[in-house]
Amino acid sequence: ARFFKNDYSGENTKIVCSYYKGETRGDNIVIASNSFEGNLIDSYNYIWEFINARMNHGFIKIGDKRIDIDSYPERALHESIINALAHRDYMQDGTQINVDMFRNRLVISSPGSVFNSGDISATYNLSGLISKRRNTVISSTFVYCKAMEAKGTGFEKIEEDYKDMDPKHKPYIFSKNNQFSIVLPDLTNPDGCYILDEALYFTKQIENKGKYDLDILSYCYGSYRSAKDIVQKLGISDSSYVRHTILGNLVKQGYLLTRDVAKTTEYITNKEYVLLK
Question: For the chain, what is the radius of gyration of the CA atoms?
Answer without folding.
Answer: 20
